[in-house]
Amino acid sequence: AQSVTQLGSHVSVSEGALVLLRCNYSSSVPPYLFWYVQYPNQGLQLLLKYTSAATLVKGINGFEAEFKKSETSFHLTKPSAHMSDAAEYFCVFRGNQFYFGTGTSLTVIP
Amino acid sequence: GAVVSQHPSRVICKSGTSVKIECRSLDFQATTMFWYRQFPKKSLMLMATSNEGSKATYEQGVEKDKFLINHASLTLSTLTVTSAHPEDSSFYICSAKALSSYEQYFGPGTRLTVT
């Protein structure tokens, strides 16, 4: 079965601290993986995507994610959190449809 | 590029009435459009997939007679919630995909409140 699992439904970090949001996938075929961000009452904005090219993917707003096949992971990171990063983040696996993780709510503490 | 719009952004309707939500791809031809539902503080749930000119494919547990989907053109899909009830209140998000693309582009969502 194809799926993604996001570990931690809520993550809190201090402003300026490292952001790490975890995502693991399950797939028998090479995956296409995405990270989306959702601000309150808004749609989804694509942060970055992995499409079997470089394993370290850089996205918008200073985010990046590294695809690790051996760990079946695609964790999202940002070196220094900003208040504006507070939002809901979704890891998404593309199989025959988009499979969404359960989401991680990021809180940034001033 | 790849902009998807939804209209309306918010709608309030009375129980028993029907409401239509539009999803448009503004700068590309969307051969496939998807409709999702999102409950508060939850992930997105795929409701149905529609291909231009053909009937929508509904996910298990989604009532096709209640959630009518039309994809009459390559830039427009509509979701009509018929005989709406308070439990239909939710955030509805559409996305669109071009024929040659693996990526979905999401609309800004529509907040439906049924009173």
Q: Overview of this structure, please?
A:
The complex is a heterodimer of chains A (110) and B (115). In chain A, the strands form two sheets. In chain A, strands 2, 4, 5, 9, 10 and 11 form a six-stranded mixed beta sheet that branches. Chain A has a five-stranded antiparallel beta sheet with strand order 1-3-8-7-6, with no helix packed on it. The mean pLDDT of chain A is 92. By secondary structure, chain A is an all-beta fold. Chain A is built from no helices and eleven strands. Chain B has 115 residues and is mainly beta. Chain B contains no helices and eleven strands. Chain B is globular and about 40 Å long. Chain B starts with a strand and ends with a strand. In chain B, 34% of the residues are buried. At the A-B interface, strand 4 and strand 5 of A face strand 5 and strand 9 of B.
What is the topological layout?
The complex is a heterodimer of chains A (110) and B (115).
Chain A: E1 3-7, E2 10-14, E3 19-26, E4 32-38, E5 44-50, E6 56-58, E7 64-68, E8 73-78, E9 87-94, E10 98-100, E11 104-109
Parallel strand pairs in A: 2-11
Antiparallel strand pairs in A: 1-3, 3-8, 4-5, 4-9, 6-7, 7-8, 9-10, 9-11
Chain B: E1 4-7, E2 10-13, E3 19-25, E4 32-38, E5 44-51, E6 57-58, E7 67-73, E8 76-81, E9 90-97, E10 105-106, E11 110-114
Parallel strand pairs in B: 2-11
Antiparallel strand pairs in B: 1-3, 3-8, 4-5, 4-9, 5-6, 7-8, 9-10, 9-11
